[in-house]
Automatic annotation (TrEMBL):
<protein>
    <submittedName>
        <fullName>Glyoxalase superfamily enzyme, possibly 3-demethylubiquinone-9 3-methyltransferase</fullName>
    </submittedName>
</protein>
<keyword id="KW-0830">Ubiquinone</keyword>
<dbReference type="InterPro" id="IPR009725">
    <property type="entry name" value="3_dmu_93_MTrfase"/>
</dbReference>
<dbReference type="GO" id="GO:0008168">
    <property type="term" value="F:methyltransferase activity"/>
</dbReference>
<dbReference type="InterPro" id="IPR029068">
    <property type="entry name" value="Glyas_Bleomycin-R_OHBP_Dase"/>
</dbReference>
<dbReference type="InterPro" id="IPR028973">
    <property type="entry name" value="PhnB-like"/>
</dbReference>
<keyword id="KW-0489">Methyltransferase</keyword>
<dbReference type="Pfam" id="PF06983">
    <property type="entry name" value="3-dmu-9_3-mt"/>
</dbReference>
<feature type="domain" description="PhnB-like">
    <location>
        <begin position="6"/>
        <end position="120"/>
    </location>
</feature>
<keyword id="KW-0808">Transferase</keyword>
<dbReference type="GO" id="GO:0032259">
    <property type="term" value="P:methylation"/>
</dbReference>
Length: 162
């Protein structure tokens, strides 16, 4: 049996799908807005407004619907994690996504649409996996105090136990 299944996240918005797709596709490389289905005269929505659509963020396809306010509140139970190669990438994604949103702790933020993101430098995992438990614990302690993860501060905390 050959399966041709693909899995895509589907995000429920009140009425901001088009704005969200534009926001995300400007931030990430290899991104684009696909088909947006609009309400016609017969639909329950305002004719011409977006009902549902598809967009790609860094090569990953997302679907979205403007389903009204009943489920339009995102929670931290679902988040998207961005693995960053260095502090420059952390700063770029953090600053871009938190614009109009809010910071949280340990590399988490909510964007202007309320969607949660984790902006994580690869170096964090390296330090948390340090074979010296004292260094790993020091890096973890530093991370737990941060909003945006700062690699130099993690390294300084780990190096301070040597």
């Amino acid at each position: 049996m050959t399966l041709t299944t693909s899995i895509s996240p589907c995000l429920w918005f009140d009425d901001q799908l088009e704005q969200a797709a534009e926001f995300y596709t400007k931030i990430f490389p290899r991104s684009s807005i696909g088909h947006l289905a609009r309400y016609g005269d017969a639909g329950p929505g305002q004719p011409g407004t977006v009902m549902a659509g598809e967009f790609t963020i860094d090569g990953m396809t997302f679907r979205g619907i403007n389903g009204g306010p009943m489920y339009a509140e995102f929670t931290e139970a679902i988040s998207f994690s961005i693995a960053c190669s260095d502090q420059t990438e952390v700063d770029y994604y953090w600053d871009s996504l938190v614009d109009g949103g809010e910071e949280s702790m340990c590399g988490w933020l909510k964007d202007r649409f309320g969607l949660s993101w984790q902006i994580v430098p690869n170096r964090l995992y390296e330090l948390l996996g340090d074979p010296d438990p004292a260094r790993a614990n020091a890096a973890q302690g530093a991370m737990l105090q941060m909003r945006k993860i700062v690699v130099a501060d993690l390294e300084a905390a780990a190096d301070a136990v040597d």
